Amino acid sequence: QCDLQGLWRNELGSDMTTLATNTAGTFSGSYHTAVAATNKQILVSSFQGVQQHPSAKRHPTFGFTVQWQFSDSTTGFVGQCFVYHHGKETLETMWLLRQEVLSHRDTWKATRVGTSIFTRIK
Ligand code: BTN
């Protein structure tokens, strides 16, 4: 069974706390990134997400969007929760980080993409 609620850490050392998913499948939480594309001081930032089939305890897909408190950027994550042997849960995700650029001429360099795996630490 996969439960998104809890404290998770990814391969960069970023920590994320996810609150309980409601019956409609929406959830929220806070994200403490270990790294940033800006030189500003990192602040804990909130996110809003949705999960598919919140009551069926399978391997749900989900997505969430982080509204960074210290930069003009937005990150969207999509992923799926898996359970391995011994009940170890992981969140396998991909993300897009959109940076604010001042001209549409700069849009070509405004989006970063990556993969990220979160494991439960609590
Ligand atoms: C910014 O740099 O403007 C905001 C912080 C972005 C952090 C990114 S989001 C994707 C990747 N995974 C993380 O845990 N942190 C970075």
TrEMBL record:
GO cellular component terms, alphabetically, are: extracellular region
* Keywords attached to this entry: Biotin, Disulfide bond, Glycoprotein, Secreted, Signal
One matching Pfam family = Avidin
Please state where this protein is localized. Answer: Secreted
- Recall the GO molecular function terms of this protein's record: biotin binding
Does the record bear Glycoprotein in its keywords? yes
Glycoprotein: present as a keyword of the record?
yes
Disulfide-bond pairs as recorded: C2-C81
Its biological function?
Answer: Forms a strong non-covalent specific complex with biotin.
> What family does the entry list?
Belongs to the avidin/streptavidin family.
* Subunit structure, interactors included: Homotetramer.
Instruction: Tell me what this protein is called.
Output: Avidin
- As recorded in Swiss-Prot or TrEMBL, the protein's gene is named Avd_1
